[in-house]
Amino acid sequence: MADQKESFEAKDFGWMVAMSLLFFVLVAVGFWLEYSTDWGTYQRTFPGLLGHYGKVEEARNFRAGIRQIWIPQMGVTDRCVTCHLGYEWASVLPATIAEPLKPHPMNDWLAKHEFARFGCTPCHGGDGAATSVIGAHQGGRGWEDPMLSRALAARNGLTMNEMIQMRCNFCHRHDVATPGMEQINLAKQLFKKKKCLVCHVVEGRGGATGAELTYEGDRNPELLNFAHVRGERTMFNWNVQHLTQASVVSPGTQMPDFNFKPDESRALTLLLLSWRRLPYPPEYIPDPEVAAAAMQPSPTPTATPTPAATPPPH
Ligand code: HEC
Ligand code: HEC
Ligand code: HEC
Ligand code: HEC
Question: Are 154 and 133 part of one and the same domain?
Answer without folding.
Answer: no
